[in-house]
Specification:
Blueprint (H helix, E strand, L loop, with lengths): L1 H12 L14 E3 L5 E3 L17 E13 L2 E10 L2 E10 L1 E6 L3 H8 L5 E9 L5 E7 L2 H11 L13 H7 L6 E5 L2 E3 L2 E3 L2 E4 L9 E8 L5 E7 L5 E5 L13 E5 L2 H15 L3 E4 L2 H16 L15 E2 L7 E2 L6 E4 H7 L9 H9 L8 H14 L1 H22 L1 H12 L9 H15 L26 E11 L2 H9 L3 H8 L8 E2 L5 E2 L6 H17 L3 H18 L9 H24 L3 E6 L2 E5 L6 H27 L7 E12 L13 E6 L5 E6 L10 H16 L4 H12 L9 E5 L12 H15 L10 E8 L2 E4 L9 H17 L6 H4 L1 H6 L1
Parallel strand pairs: 5-11, 13-17, 15-16, 17-20
Antiparallel strand pairs: 1-2, 3-4, 3-9, 4-5, 6-8, 7-8, 9-12, 10-11, 13-14, 14-15, 18-19, 21-25, 21-26, 22-23, 24-25, 26-27, 27-28, 29-30, 30-31
Helix pairs in contact: 1-15, 4-12, 8-10, 9-10, 11-16, 12-16, 13-15, 13-17, 15-16, 19-22, 20-22
Length: about 850
């Protein structure tokens, strides 16, 4: 079933190509939308059919390009069923575009530039200006030309699309490929033909890598797990009677240079496709590179014994990328975040405890450093065991969370490299550019339209209080369904803005006009939507999640000023349409006699006005959803001649529901509520959204109190004694283990000057203590700090000297939560607690 889903996804996007020689840059071709289209923009050449070859399938692991005197050379490394394979596509011509009205100025410049020429094309810009193709032998020539033209006010369009990206996107290739033709040179397949193969999923060879170091990042050991050769390389001479562990090899290395050389040889022997780890690029690989550099020996972890091509993030200081030829590097933290996992802390210890129910065998950071130092000096086999167990934990987390499957499905869905997380704009471009070209358009450059604010999702004013029987209806993928229904699309907007007759156009909320006939994005979303429905039916959760994330990212991409298709009119046509829909849905529901007490972007919360059984509430919600969908279908067909893809569905029944006020006022809050939900089988669960219970920056004391009080109120159980006893226990010191704040330091410590929050004060005390203890300072560049409030202010756990300030916890942590719940019930914290009265 999963194969058929991916096959259908590819067939919806597939286009066949024939070689027409270098002079043919664009020709008529059947497009994915049924409209006349074009072949790939860039010139490509197929190998001669006389060359003996056979089709192969592969999964793209890494991609790269370089300029050569003959043209751009593209390199792809594939994972195949028979092992890794390198593809080289040589002498590639690179292409950009310029509006034809600038021909004279561009030709004058090109007369001095060899190997760059203009060609006539049947394409136009979003301004409806005909464009010329600018074909360059070397890709970097396009960048140089763009920078020369910029002061003249002449944009060179799509000059930033790199050769290896354009080659894949113009052929609708994401990750899987079929290979045919070509010739073999030096173990590489050269100038072959690549076509999509969305069904191909190889078994990837994975190694988990972890290192241990001193507190000053001096390398002690390297562990490698996941393949047949499980090993730990340990710095030092073997003892006279070495003890060899049972389930892995412990290899002693006299020098750090020998460790690096041994690591290089291990990679050459075992040849993994994927390296996984925990903060593996920013710490493990970075330390290994620094160690190799210090030792004067190369670190050669890429295929063909090639080095890591380190790059820094242009907008994130200190953040590193570690591309290496032929191997993907997947960090567990980034993979979990990309798959929308959420944890209070993404430390390996915390994630292991939450997902696996077990963790590491050493405590906090400085206990860990001291114990690692002790084991290195006194018990190297124990350090080796600790090192390789971290590798095991990472592999088990990847298996439990299906992270490798998710990464592979995401690559197949987005067209991005296996280890490239984030990149929503790049994924959008990968899907959109080739389809836009086939409709006769080239893309604008980033920044052509200056950013101005556009509205976000509609958040309704809430009606605070306690309620019985509240049901929630939720629009399924609201923004993608708006794109499909109202044909919101960059090309459609360009067509609508310049249409001679507006009668058949679709009018957006701000008067924006869209074409009914010429568009790309609605078809892309439809294809992804149907593929996700198939994936859900097949219970392929990694594929379903990948499809959902990329589909739902499109609206955000169109609203990002970093996107070449950014246009405030475009994103407003989505978000404001969402506003209209939520308001119209509220009116529909209230005409039925129910009350909408809250709404947020794509959901409405409906009070059924009286207590309903679970079965009655489910039936009412299902009927409302059915009738709303029918109403949209009829209204849009009759009033705008549009097919509705809007679908609202029943989400949750809350037997009890609480919407608080904004603290210190009578106004209902937004994005903050709690409820006792009941599923179809009658199973109840407490749900918290935005309240202190769901926020990690409040203490466990506050979260536990809120959970205990709300659950008692919802269940109709006595709660007054609970409030009194909880306050008394806190004052008596019986809840000291719940008093710890855990907060993030988002900037360097020296960046806090005027307003210094408590967590920064605690971090400064902690690092003063670290210096006193002759340990590295831990918090100078940010991170997480745990501290308590004392009578002398905030103090870190590791350096607390003062008594606890219990009054702070009572008045700042317990009382605000108590009054938010008690005041709607006609009571308050002060009247229930003698301890509170004594304080004042």
């Amino acid at each position: 079933m999963a194969h058929s889903i991916r096959g259908a996804l590819s067939r919806s996007f597939a286009v066949s190509f024939r070689d027409r020689g270098p002079a043919c840059a664009a020709r008529q071709q059947a497009s994915t939308t049924g409209q006349p289209g074009r072949a790939p923009i860039s010139d490509f050449r197929l190998a001669s059919s006389a060359v003996p070859s056979f089709p192969r399938q592969g999964f793209i692991l890494t991609r790269n390009w370089r300029d050569t005197p003959a043209g751009a050379e593209i390199e792809y490394w594939l994972a195949t069923d028979t092992g890794p394979f390198k593809i080289l596509l040589t002498a590639r011509t690179s292409v950009a575009f310029v509006e034809a009205r600038h021909r004279g100025a561009v030709e004058a410049l090109l007369s001095l530039t060899p190997d760059v020429e203009l060609r006539e094309l049947d394409l136009k810009s979003f301004r409806q200006e005909p464009v010329l193709g600018v074909y360059a032998r070397r890709f970097r020539q396009l960048g140089q030309l763009a920078r020369t033209l910029q002061p003249l006010g002449i944009p060179l369009l799509e000059a930033d699309v790199r050769p290896h990206e354009r080659y894949l996107m113009e052929r609708f290739i994401t990750a899987g490929v079929v290979l045919a033709g070509g010739r073999t040179e030096n173990s590489a397949l050269v100038d072959c033909r690549l076509l999509p193969s969305p069904d191909f999923r190889p078994t990837l060879k994975v190694v988990s890598l972890d290192i241990e170091t001193s507190q000053h990042q001096h390398l002690y050991s390297i562990a490698l797990d996941g393949m047949a050769e499980r090993v730990v390389y340990m710095l030092g001479e073997p003892p006279p009677e070495p003890v060899q562990p049972e389930d892995f090899a412990l290899v002693y290395c006299a020098t750090r240079k020998a460790m690096i050389d041994s690591l290089n040889e291990w990679f050459a022997r075992n040849d993994p496709d994927v390296i996984v780890g925990w903060n593996v690029i920013q710490f493990d690989l970075h330390v290994l590179q620094k160690t190799a550099d210090d030792c004067g020996t190369p670190l050669l972890l890429g295929r063909e014994r090639r080095p890591i091509a380190w790059r820094t993030h242009p907008g994130k200081q200190g953040y590193l990328f570690a591309p290496m030829p032929g191997r993907a590097v997947i960090d567990g933290i980034e993979a979990l975040r990309a798959a929308v996992w959420s944890f209070p802390s993404f430390s390996l210890e915390n994630v292991s405890q939450e997902l696996l129910g077990e963790g590491k065998d050493i405590g906090d950071e400085y206990d860990k450093m001291a114990e690692i130092e002790r084991r290195y000096q006194e018990d190297k086999p124990a350090l080796a065991t600790y090192n390789i167990r971290d590798c095991e934990l990472v592999l088990r987390i990847f298996e439990k969370a299906k992270l490798l499957q998710f990464a592979m499905e995401r690559a197949h869905t987005t067209g991005l490299q296996l280890d490239h997380f984030g990149g929503s704009i790049a994924a959008f471009s990968h899907h959109y550019l080739p389809r836009m070209h086939r409709l006769g358009y080239v893309a604008p450059n980033v920044g052509e339209i200056q950013g101005k604010s556009s509205p976000g999702g509609y958040v309704m004013d809430s009606q605070p209080g306690f309620y019985d029987s509240v049901v929630v209806l939720d629009y399924k993928s609201l923004y993608p369904s708006i794109i499909r229904t109202f044909l919101v699309d960059p090309v459609g907007l360009a067509e609508g803005q310049h249409a001679a007759s507006p009668e058949r156009l679709i009018k957006g909320p701000k008067g924006t006009l869209f074409s009914r006939e010429k568009h790309c994005l609605p078809e892309i979303v439809t294809t992804l939507w149907r593929a996700r429905d198939e994936a859900k039916r097949a219970r392929n959760e990694p594929l379903s999640q990948a499809l959902k994330l990329v589909m739902n990212s499109f609206a955000g991409v169109l609203g990002a000023s970093e996107c070449r298709f950014f246009n405030p009119d475009l994103i407003s046509s989505i978000t404001l349409r969402g506003h209209e829909m939520v308001k119209a849905t509220r009116d529909f529901v209230e005409r039925r006699g129910y009350q909408v007490i809250y709404g947020d972007t794509d959901s409405i919360f409906i009070w059924l006005k009286r207590r309903h059984t679970n079965e009655e509430a489910h039936a009412v919600a299902a009927e409302l959803a059915r009738d709303i969908n029918r109403w949209w279908t009829h209204t849009l067909r009759e009033e705008q001649d549009l097919e509705s893809f809007l679908e609202i569905e029943f989400d949750t029944h809350y037997r009890k529901f609480f919407m608080p006020t904004i603290r210190g006022s009578d106004v209902g809050s937004k994005k903050r509520y709690a409820g006792l939900s009941v599923d179809a089988a009658g199973k109840e669960a407490m749900v918290y959204r935005g309240l202190e219970m769901a926020r990690s920056d409040w203490t466990p004391l506050a979260r536990q109190f809120q959970e205990g009080l709300l659950s008692r109120v919802f269940q109709g159980a006595p709660y007054r004694d609970f409030v009194t006893e909880y306050a008394q226990s806190t004052l008596a010191g019986r809840k000291d283990d719940l008093l710890v704040y855990r907060k993030r330091l988002r900037h360097r410590l020296d960046a806090y000057i005027a307003n210094v929050p408590p967590q920064v004060r605690a971090a400064r005390i902690a690092d003063e203590y670290n210096v006193h203890m002759e340990r590295p300072r831990q918090y100078q560049n940010g991170g997480w700090i745990r501290y308590v409030m004392t009578r002398n202010g905030p103090e870190p756990l590791e350096a607390r000297r003062s008594p606890i300030d219990y009054e702070h916890y009572l008045t700042r942590q317990i009382q605000p939560i108590a009054d938010a719940i008690l005041l709607p019930l006609g009571e308050d914290f002060a009247s229930l607690t003698s301890a509170q009265q004594e304080l004042f």
